[in-house]
Amino acid sequence: MQRIIVAPSILAADFSRLNDEIHRVEAAGADWIHCDIMDGHFVDNISFGPDMVRIVRGLTSLPLDVHLMIEHADHYVPRFGKAGANSITVHIEPEAKHDVSKTLEQIRDSGCRAGLTLNPETPFDLPAISR
Fold it and tell me: Checking CA distances to 71, which of 10, 43, 97, 107 falls within 20 to 30 Å?
């Protein structure tokens, strides 16, 4: 049986009490901390950037799972790697304006685990990864 990984998103945290919120999920048994990064273009919301990931990295030793819901993920991968991400996941949708294969390579080159995701309505097509 595979182990279930619990990765609460800091997007649900009270940012005025971020340190307490992170310690609370650690005490509850969280395995990772999930960071939803939204640019207001790929998705209709704006969250935070590499500086917030750097702050979270200073508050926990748990792995940071960074989910880039942004148009130009390739421009930001190095910044999130330097900020302390352990894994970075990018989207394959046409709205994600980057070469997916190159971006996945860039993530691995930054020392992070690479992930690929797609929205439920997006058909999975392997040739699209190399666009």
Answer: 10
